[in-house]
Specification:
about 250 residues; alpha/beta; six-stranded parallel β-sheet; 12 strands; about 40% helix
């Protein structure tokens, strides 16, 4: 049995690959949207946040032999737990890691930061209509730290996410509820429509439409703040889905 840590578009491709090779697996996700994605591939979906102890128990109870970690590059806590659980259980851990695209950016009007807090510091100094393209997870931090600016957030159009946004004080004037990834042209149109003069994004990789957001900024000469990935020492990292079979 393989435990796939999912919730991303990459994890769906991995599930399709496992289906092709008829390999048994279960997908672990932490959101209802992630569950909806996973159920397109399998009915063996676990919807809950797993601690290290939870993972170790699940591995033992279900005779899991390998973990494939296909979580978002910023889900470092989940990855850290999975690495420790694999060591405790003495099973193989495989990390699918999206390629970094930072070096491919040909645009000078950018700010590279390590944390959301640093991004907020820059936002407080420049820009008035700020586009937040990092998802809904950390909106409370932006709301708390960025003062006297208009924030436009682009989030998934699910009731769970929208209720979360509204509870933080965002309303219809601040929320763009759409499912990506988005083309460069669509990003340009969005930035123009809302008079965006600063974009905050994460280094999410090709699957997250990262370059399309940055290239749209370049066309409009809009400054962009990029929150870099946290560095982790992943064992058995693979960058191409087709190469996973060699490790499995």
């Amino acid at each position: 049995m393989i435990l796939v840590l999912g919730g991303t578009s990459d994890s769906i491709e991995i599930c399709n690959l496992l289906n092709e090779y008829k390999l048994p697996y279960v997908v672990s996700v932490t959101t209802t949207y992630g569950e909806e994605l996973a159920r397109k591939c399998t009915d063996k979906v676990l919807l809950r946040k797993l601690t290290i102890e939870d993972m170790v128990n699940f591995i033992e109870d279900n005779k899991v032999e390998k973990i494939i970690d296909a979580t978002h590059p910023y889900a470092v806590e989940v990855s850290s737990n999975a690495i420790k659980a694999s060591e405790i259980s003495n099973i193989k851990y495989i990390r699918f890691e999206r390629k970094s695209l930072i070096d491919e950016i040909d645009y000078d009007n950018k700010y590279l930061v390590d944390t959301i807090e640093e991004a907020c510091d820059i936002a407080n100094k420049i820009g008035n209509n700020i586009f937040i393209g990092t998802g809904s997870k950390n909106l409370s931090v932006y709301k708390k730290l960025i003062k006297n600016k208009k924030l436009m957030v682009r989030v998934l159009p699910t009731s769970e996410v929208l209720l979360s946004c509204e509870s933080l004080g965002f309303n219809a004037d601040n929320i763009i509820a759409m499912k990506g990834p988005f083309t460069q042209e669509m990003n340009e149109s969005t930035y123009r429509q809302y008079n965006i003069d600063l974009v905050i994004t994460k280094e999410s990789g090709a699957a997250g439409g990262f370059l399309e957001k940055v290239d749209a900024c370049k066309v409009l000469n809009t400054p962009v703040v990029i929150i870099k990935r946290k560095k982790m020492n992943y064992p058995n990292t693979v960058g191409k889905i087709e190469n996973l079979i060699e490790l499995i």
